[in-house]
Amino acid sequence: MVSKSKIKFIKSLQVKKYRKQEQSFVVEGAKSVTELLHSDFEIVWLAGREDFITRHQVLLDRKRIETVVATESELSQVGTFQTNDAAIAIARMKENKPPMLNETYCLALDDLRDPGNVGTIIRTADWYGIKTIIASEETADFYNPKTISATMGSFCRVNVFYTDLVSFLRTSKLPVYGAFMNGTDVHEVNFGKGGIVVIGNESNGISDAVGQLVTQRITIPRIGGAESLNAAIATGIVLDTIFYSKK
């Protein structure tokens, strides 16, 4: 049974202010919690259905995680999911450490506000083997429950570093590719061994300050009548083109 104090604590972690204060975040659902258990995140507490706990008992014991058996109704009440028939966990945030970039590709997110978009982009990055994302300080929080949920467990394999994006790009020696409505057809660009791919805000695109640091403007050619592409879908198309062109 989940105590009232623990329910209150979990609810508080839905708010960024308290996540930052406690340096903790919540993970929900069978897929994401299972990925979390096999990751290097520190897990401090877990509630789950009896069958879920039994299935992962060896790992739970080895990591010495405080565990509580809960019903499906309790799991749904304490978290953000309408239905949760597996588990919910509390884990510690990782330090926001600057990455060591090498001759490979990474993403940069310029003021993306939708946590669902950010989560889907993290999942897409994981699909293409990208380990690092640089995010502007205004970009949606990596630890937002909606972001974590949208990653479908990929948050365990992709590191997101929040920083002043303009300052970061100024110090980088990698080529910077920026997705714009007007630019070179992405299918005609000669992509090198590595670089930074910038994805802009859902409504306004890449900011002027960041745009000035882009060394190659790229665009996905429009065939139909849609006004724009979802940021996460655009990311997938660009990454697929980059890695296809490298074959």
Give a written overview of the molecule.
This protein is α/β, with parallel strands linked by helices and 247 residues long. It folds into two domains: 4-92, 60s Ribosomal Protein L30, Chain: A, CATH 3.30.1330.30; 105-245, Alpha/beta knot (3-Layer(aba) Sandwich). The chain is built from eleven helices and ten strands. The strands form two sheets. A six-stranded parallel β-sheet has the order 7-6-5-9-8-10. The protein is elongated and about 55 Å long.
Radius of gyration: 20 Å
Give me the strand/helix succession.
HHEHEHHEHEEHEHEHEEHEH
Number of helices: 11
Label the overall shape: elongated
Defining key terms:
6-stranded parallel sheet, 60s Ribosomal Protein L30, Chain: A, alpha/beta, 2 domains, Alpha/beta knot, 4-stranded mixed sheet, 247 residues, 11 helices, 23% strand
Give the structure's gist in a few sentences:
The chain has 247 residues and is of the alpha/beta class. It is built from 11 helices and 10 strands. Strands 7-6-5-9-8-10 form a 6-stranded parallel sheet. The chain has a 4-stranded mixed sheet with strand order 1-4-2-3.
